[in-house]
Structure formats: structure tokens, C-alpha cells
Design brief:
The chain has a seven-stranded mixed beta sheet with strand order 1-4-3-2-5-6-7. It has a six-stranded parallel beta sheet with strand order 10-9-8-11-12-13, sandwiched between helices. Helices cover 44% and strands 12% of the residues. It is globular and about 75 Å long. α5 crosses α6, α5 packs across α19 and α11 packs parallel to α12. The chain starts with a strand and ends with a helix. By secondary structure, it is an alpha/beta fold. It folds into three domains: 179 residues, Rossmann fold, CATH 3.40.50; 108 residues, no CATH class; 160 residues, Glycogen Phosphorylase B (Rossmann fold).
């Protein structure tokens, strides 16, 4: 779906934001960051290529005039239009796909990932990739690869169901390859993963420089998510192999990488990024928009703000609160934030946990709040319990509001807090409870921490600093001109065995 908005301005610097599940179709920290960047640069023209769920998601942000168009790339919903290839074209695509899945599963074949991905992108542009991946030939290719002698995944005895599941997940993950890539300006991926796919295509076809900003570490979050996913190991090997090699290819090909914290840099360097091309740019807030919150609430109250999602680990927070309540029976925990579609079961699990711990009457899910400052003002202490973060807005916003914080030591949290809050290990309810009790018992210390936190934001983490940094980066990358296109060796044509034979062998 294309949404045209403002008109392109001749001679203006052009940036295409590449997003996944965020701006401009949903709220949340990364969406806030995108809105800050766009609205803060009226002199820059923006397009957006947004990877979405079904393509039917409404735009929930007011787009300024400098946003020319929004293109959605749905990963789910109805299958894309197109016809499967026939004859020689099918054999070529099957050969490219075999090289692709071999790279995902065989460490000795990883050099084949990039040229194979390029060939798949060409097929996606012609409307042939998705139909091919929904057919028997793709299943035959995968089963043939992971049943080769010596292939480690073969020891897990992959089944036909595994093959169908893995191929289906890959088909959906590769759908963004069909999105029209930027042809000029700068392609700015605001996360790793599938949002980068149009950017890699734009770099290869048109020399458009690729800028990567990682708020959290996309690959790490995929590892965390798939650890409890309901798939057998052969499926996880394929999908996680794809995400790992995609991350490494992105790190190698990006003109510049701008992590939101120094923690991300470790992952990026290990993934093959040139350290000279990594520049940390912290998220920022406007201190005037988040002034001191004023008097604390009566009675001991812990507050939390964010989306209700497993990665925020509200279960650890609720367990910690139950320990707090053993010492302070009048304590309350107020949770502010919406529940994403599909996350209802997690919220119900959290509510059941609170009830089971005898704290159901003191834990309230407040939903989305009109003014997020109210969420920070609602607590004597603001909590953050995530198992993965980048440089969380909720934390620096609470700091700007002058509230003392207790946060888990993930991502850039320690860089944000410094000495102005308490940091505890993730998934440790006892440590979190002890830190909260320490602050709840000492109003003077809370006040001093809150004042130090606001000063830290003013000195280091303002929105103006963030916007100015990215404007300079956009102008610099634009002035460099197109990158040289990559010369790929031709992908060998491989005759796969007939699908019926391959499927019969795996069903066995």
C-alpha cells in the first residue's frame, strides 16, 4: 500500500526510513524516536518503507509535510500477487534458493548468503519469489539440503512438518524484498532484521548508502524470542541462521552504524562491522517537555511505563513487588501502557501471577495514558524490568521528570543512568525488590537521585543533540554520492531432485 503525503522538493536531501512494526503504524519507543527525527528536520524530505503485519494497520502518527510517501510491506496477511517461475527460470531460482538455505545451515557455505539473497531479491521484484516459496520445489530444496550427509541439523531428524514450517517462516520474512527500494538519497534502517532488506537492495541496485540504527540488538532479541518458540530445532536452525547472516551482511555493508548505546557496539563488531564505521548516538528528550514531576504520591507506589510485552518482563517486576509488599503492605504497583494485539495472553498471565502471589488488589494495569508524564509522576520510584533494551525512552523521560529509578542492567541502561539511579541484574526479583525498598525507605536519597537524573539528561541526552547529530549524518552521506554497485558472481543453476522424491524421503 502506498500513501502519498507531501510533495518532493527539488534539491532537498532525501531520506527513506526503513521500519518494522513501528513508525508510522504504531506507538512505542522506536516510533517516538522516528517522529522526533522527522518532525525535527523540516529541511529534509522523508519517505517511509514500513514492514507491517497485514498491511491494514492504520497510520497513527500525524505526518508532517516533509514526509512524501509511506509504502507498507506486509509480512503476513494474504499472499502477495505473482506467478511461480517455470522451466529454466524455476531451475535458476531453485539453485539460488539451495545456495541460500545451505548458507543458513552450513558454516562452510556462508559466503553464498549475499549472492543468493541478491538473486532472491530479483525474483521478489518480479513477483516470483513468494509463489516459489509456497510450492513443493522449495520444500524439496530445503529437505535435500538439511538431509545431506554430515549436516549437523540432520541428526535432529527433520520432518515434513519442520520443512513446511521453516519454509513458511522464510517466505514471510523475505516478503519485504518485494518492496520498492529507494533509488536515491539515504536509506536509514531504524532497526536490524527484515526492515533492512529494501535497503540492501537499494545499495546493490542504485548505490544508495545504507545507514543502520539499532536501538536494541535485533539479533539478540530474535535469539531470546526463539528460545521459547514452539518450533523444533531444525526450524530454529534455519530461521536463526537467516537472522544471523542477515545481521552480519548488514553490518558489513552499512556506510555507517549508529547504535543507541555502547552495548550494541559489541554485538556489531562481533558481527563483522568495521569499528571505524560505528558511532554511538544516544536517544534524547526535550527537558522542557518532561519537567520535574512535582510532589510524590502519598504512600509507597512503584510505577512502570511501556508496552505489555514479554521482553519487558513484567513477571519479574510483579514478583519483586510481591516481595516489597511483604515489607510494606500498603505498597502499590501501577503499570501504564497498552497491550499490543496478540499480547492479551501475556497480560492475562501477569494478572494471574499477581493474584496468585496475593498482590492482585495492589497491581493495576492502567492502559495507555494520555500524558506519559502522569505515569512517571504516579510513582515514588519508576521501575524498568526489561530483559532487552536499547536506550529506553521511558527511562530518560522519567529521569528528566526528576524521579528516582530502579532498572535492569540491559542494553544502554547503565549508560543512561550513571550514578543517578539503581541498576540490578535482569530476571532477579529479589535484587529488584531490595533496590526498590532501599529507595522507598529514604525520601532524601530519592530526591537527590531525581535531581541528579534530570541534570544528567540536560547535559547529555537532549533531543536537540540527537536531531543535530542525524542531520549532519544525513548531509554527509548524501554528499558522498552513490556507492559503487556490488559485482555478484552468477548463482549456479542446480537441478533439484523431483519434489515428490524429496518429500517422500523426509516423511519417511
Amino acid at each position: 500500500m502506498h500513501v502519498h503525503h507531501g510533495a518532493r522538493r527539488p534539491g532537498s536531501t532525501r531520506v527513506t526510513l526503513l521500519t518494522e512494526g513501528t513508525y508510522p503504524h504504531s506507538h512505542g519507543g522506536v516510533s517516538v524516536w522516528c517522529d522526533q527525527i522527522v518532525t525535527g528536520m523540516p529541511d529534509i524530505d522523508f519517505d517511509v518503507v514500513a514492514v507491517t503485519g497485514t498491511g491494514r494497520e492504520p497510520i497513527v502518527w500525524d505526518l508532517p509535510a516533509q514526509v512524501s510517501k509511506v509504502v507498507t510491506a506486509p509480512m503476513w496477511g494474504p499472499a502477495p500477487d505473482g506467478e511461480p517461475p517455470r522451466g529454466r527460470a524455476e531451475r535458476r531460482l531453485a539453485g539460488a534458493y539451495e545456495r541460500f538455505v545451505t548458507a543458513l545451515l552450513d558454516p562452510c557455505a556462508e559466503d553464498g548468503f549475499a549472492p543468493a539473497l541478491s538473486a532472491l531479491a530479483a525474483a521478489a521484484a518480479d513477483g516470483r519469489l513468494s509463489p516459489f516459496l509456497r510450492g513443493d520445489r522449495a520444500l524439496a530444496v530445503l529437505t535435500g539440503v538439511w538431509n545431506r550427509p554430515g549436516m549437523v541439523v540432520r541428526e535432529s531428524r527433520p520432518t515434513l512438518h519442520d520443512a513446511l514450517t521453516a519454509t513458511t517462516l522464510l517466505e514471510h520474512a523475505l516478503r519485504p524484498l518485494a518492496a520498492p527500494p529507494p533509488e536515491d538519497g539515504v536509506a536509514h534502517a531504524v532497526s536490524g532484521g527484515v526492515a533492512v532488506l529494501p535497503g540492501l537492495t537499494a545499495l546493490e541496485r542504485h548505490g544508495v548508502p545504507l545507514l543502520l540504527t539499532e536501538h536494541g540488538v535485533y539479533l539478540r532479541e530474535r535469539y531470546l524470542g526463539y528460545r521459547t518458540a514452539p518450533y523444533r530445532w531444525p526450524v530454529k536452525a534455519v530461521v536463526l541462521g537467516f537472522f544471523r547472516l542477515l545481521a552480519e551482511e548488514t553490518y558489513r555493508r552499512a556506510a555507517l552504524i549508529t547504535p543507541g548505546n555502547r552495548y550494541n557496539r559489541v554485538w556489531e563488531e562481533r558481527g563483522g562491522a568495521d569499528p571505524a564505521l560505528i558511532r554511538t548516538v544516544y536517544n534524547g528528550v526535550d527537558p522542557a517537555a518532561f519537567p520535574p514531576a512535582g510532589p510524590e504520591p502519598e504512600g509507597p507506589v512503584l510505577s512502570w511505563a511501556g508496552r505489555v510485552d514479554p521482553i519487558k518482563d513484567l513477571e519479574t517486576l510483579i514478583r519483586a513487588f510481591a516481595l516489597v509488599r511483604e515489607q510494606l503492605p500498603g505498597a502499590r504497583l501501577r503499570l501504564f501502557g497498552g497491550t499490543p494485539r496478540g499480547g492479551e495472553a501475556y497480560r492475562e498471565r501477569c494478572e494471574a501471577l499477581a493474584a496468585g502471589l496475593g498482590a492482585g488488589d495492589a497491581v493495576t494495569f492502567e492502559g495507555r495514558v494520555d500524558d506519559i508524564k502522569d505515569a512517571y509522576a504516579a510513582g515514588n520510584v519508576v521501575m524498568l524490568s526489561s530483559i532487552s533494551e536499547g536506550f529506553p525512552f521511558t527511562l530518560i523521560e522519567a529521569m528528566s521528570c526528576g524521579r528516582a529509578t530502579v532498572s535492569t542492567d540491559v542494553g544502554g541502561v547503565r549508560e543512561a543512568v550513571g550514578d543517578s539511579g539503581l541498576v540490578v541484574p535482569p530476571r532477579d526479583p529479589a535484587a529488584m525488590a531490595a533496590a526498590a525498598l532501599e529507595l522507598l525507605a529514604d525520601p532524601a536519597r530519592r530526591r537527590a537521585m531525581g535531581e541528579a537524573a534530570r541534570l544528567r539528561v540536560i547535559e547529555q541526552f537532549t533531543l536537540r543533540q540527537t536531531v543535530d547529530a542525524f542531520r549532519a549524518i544525513y548531509l554527509d552521506l548524501s554528499l558522498r554520492g552513490p556507492a559503487l554497485p556490488v559485482r555478484r558472481p552468477p548463482v549456479a543453476v542446480v537441478e533439484a531432485e523431483p519434489a515428490t522424491v524429496a518429500l517422500r524421503s523426509v516423511a519417511g
